Every structure is written in C-alpha cells, then in structure tokens.
Amino acid sequence: MKLIETHAHLDDPRFTHDLDAVIARAHAAGVTHIITIGTNMESNRSALHLAERYPSIYAALGIHPTNVSGERTCWKRELRSLATHPKVVALGEIGLDYYHPPSDVSPLGLEKWKENQKDFFQEQLALALELGLNVIIHQRDLSVTQKKELSLDSPLHHYNAWEETLKILNSFTGTLRAVFHCFGGSPKQASEVVALGHLISFTGIITFKNAPLIRETARLVNQDHIMVETDAPYLAPIPYRGGRAEPAHVRLVAEKIAEVRGISLEEVAAVTTATAEHFFRF
What we know:
By secondary structure, the chain is of the alpha/beta class. The chain has 10 helices and 8 strands. It is globular, with a radius of gyration of 18 Å. It starts with a strand and ends with a helix. The mean pLDDT is 94.
C-alpha cells in the first residue's frame, strides 16, 4: 500500500529541527511522495530547495491569495523560471481568500484588494496553461460569525470566493485541471467541481467531531475525483488535533475516508494514489 501526501508546507519553521525524522515517519506510514507547497516567492524557493534535497519530495509553486499584496512587480518572471524545474509538479496554492480582509479599509480599498487577488489568480492560471501544469486551488469565504460582526453597508457581505473562483476557472475548462485543496464544502459543491473536470482533496478536518458535512461529502463524491493531504503543519487530525500535523498523518485521513465510504484503506490508497500520480505527472 502506498499513499501520496498532496499538500504540505515543509518549509514551515516547525519542521526546521526534525525534518529528516518527519520524512522517515511518512515513509514508514506508506507515503511515497510528498508535495511541499510554496505560498510566496521566498517560500517557493524554499520548497524547490527541499524538492532538490529529498528524492521523495516534489514542489508546487505559487502566490497564495493572502500574499499577493507583498509581491514585487517581477514576481511572474521569477515564478515562470522556477516552475520549469523538473520537480515542480503544479502551480499553487493559488486562488481567492476573503476570510482575511484587511482591517480599517474603505469600501474602495476593499474592492481593490479583491480585484488584486483575482488578477493574480488569473495570471497564474494563464501561466500554468503556458507551462503545461495543473493547479492547486485555495478558496475561502468569510465565516458566518465574521459576517454577523460586519456593518450592514460593508461590501464584504456580497463577496463570494466560491462563486468567483468557479467563474474564473470556467474560462480554462478543458485546458487545465485543478484540485480544490482542504475541501470543506457540501456534496453539491463537490459535484460542481467534479462536473468541471476538477478534483477535491481532504485533510485531517474530516476526522474532527464538528465536521459531519465533510464526512458526508467524502462518502458521496465520486472516488476517482479525490485526493488526500494534511496541509501540514496545520489541521492535525484526531488524535493529534491541536498539535503539529505532518505527512505521516495522511494515512489517518485515508482511514477516515475508508470508514465513511465503507471500503478498505487499501482501496482508498490505491484510488487516491492513482489519481494523484495522473494529476501531478510525477
């Protein structure tokens, strides 16, 4: 049995002192490949360095939507250059994030903030198409609690990262594929993604007691359109919740998917591994 950890942040400082042991534990758990994710140009360079250093590590490079305002004007040229490396298997994570709005910004400033994210997203999708790479999508909206705390005249009430992400992706239908990482949506939303030819990926959230919707989605979605990840060091699954997630924990994600679908861990591993191998073209 083998598993592929499709989304981890191994350049995070929490892995600085024991990365070799972390990778060894992943291998012992059956993880044959780990994709480490870049989120800005500094992180992209670190991810690529790790991919060059370890045979089982590959890199996905991109500008995370919460980082777009901090990038220099030459970001695209450098990203294009780095992404031609043979161990780069995707662009990402890229997309739209309205969960982290800037504070004390005028409505006009908020609109500029949103449009800047959309511009970066579209440019990176076009770059992925140019380079023949698939993409890893980050999409996040305001929480219900956040919306309740907003003034009624805030334009944030009307922002919808889910709908806008799908709308932007529509223009690339049939030319590139995407995986919606850390998927937390409903079966209906999963069906929308699958209908467009894209994939979804589950994290340790699927093990959380307060995540029945995600388990229901994992139970119902076509198994040929799912992958597994940890988003390490974030979102550690039960029984490690609250601690540091690491790639070895992707086995716990696969076990929970097997449980809710009523199939064997070996079947989940085989299907998700085949999907990841095809998507990332190792």
